[in-house]
Amino acid sequence: MTQNANSDVAHHDPPDGPRSGAGAVREGRPADVAARTAQRTLAARAADYTSEVRRLLDAALELMRGGGTSSRPRVADIVAAAGLSNDAFYRHFPSKDALVSALIEDGADRLASYAAHQMGKETNPAEKVLRWVEAILAQSRGEAAEITLAVLWNGSGLGGQATGRYPGAAGLAAALRDTFADLGSAEPDFDASLATYATLGVLADHLWKRAPVDAAAAERVVAFCLRMITPSPSTDPTGVA
Q1: Are 236 and 183 in contact (CB under 8 A)?
Q2: Whole-model pTM?
Q3: What backbone phi and psi angles, to 5 degrees, belong to 238?
Q4: Which CATH architecture has domain 95-241?
Q5: Per residue, what are the HEC states of 169-184?
Q6: Domain with CATH 1.10.357 in the chain
């Protein structure tokens, strides 16, 4: 009897009691604890890394703003200004060019948010396109132009020539996509991308020429964006003949 009872205890856990040992592993309880602990560690590390990246981006932007198109900060200058180390820099960026691309993308994300905010002030889709174009081309004027040009100039292989690379174009196109759909575009994603690259191209040309885009040029860009929409069959919703 004693042997049988011990055997039962060895092979059957209490119906309502907690498991332990290998039984608990099979139930997943230690794995759950391990996962939660790892998630807390990763969350804390992610917050630290996010702070590091932001410090590096902000420090680089300030240095590039100060140097303009006459001097490029070194990685050593950037990490010193950020109060970080070379290890911290290369943990997030394989090169300074990668950091410059991140700066361009970060600026484009902010610009896309601003453009969307401006578009939200209008109800007419064509007026929304105008707001979107104006938000982008405004970067050709004043301090915004100086900062944007300095960042581009710090990019790889620029030297003083415009670049055809726009790391943040996707976000700007996304801000325009629904408006193009409202205007009857048969391919709003494609058309919004074309409009984005065309508008950024105009911006880049004016930045390198150090010539602000005037109102007349902005209107021509808007007209082009509306004309290039691929209409749905038998539809021309733009009203542009």
Answers
A1: no
A2: 0.72
A3: -75, -20
A4: Orthogonal Bundle (1.10)
A5: HHHHHHHHHHHHHHCC
A6: 95-241
